[in-house]
Structure prediction request, 174 residues.
Amino acid sequence: MDISAVNALPYEDFVNIFENVVERCPLIPAAVWTRRPFVSLGDMEAAINEFIDVLPDSGKEGILRCHPDLAGRDLRSGALTRESREEQASAGMAALSAGEAARMARLNHDYKERFGFPFVICARMNDKANILQQLSQRCLSARPAERARGIEEVKKICRLRLQALVLPDAPNKL
Prediction:
């Protein structure tokens, strides 16, 4: 669908289509629907990012808490959203060795204990080795820095999910 089709969507359809561009946060497309018409896909992405940016820290942490653990219980039980399942599989999270799975579980637990929200990284832009390395390193971060880093990763995930739903902007004709 192109941006003009996005702009023509009724509220319910807009929310249903874009409800998971930010993991399990349909409130975000519900809020940005009022910003239509979007002049481009980039404009729509900017509206989402602006909504996220003005949230208080507790709201940003709420967004992070909507994300599942990488290679966690939801993956094993089949409870992930379609998008998360595909993203985790592309990064090799569904094919961890027993040792990797144990390390991932321990690091996920330590991270959540330290920060109060799950580790978030754009899985489609990483592989399992890099994810494990990042998770290990980021466990040492300060909470404000890690909250900000997690939100930047959420924005990367959102961008890729939007690009899967909306056609890229047509080049300007001069």
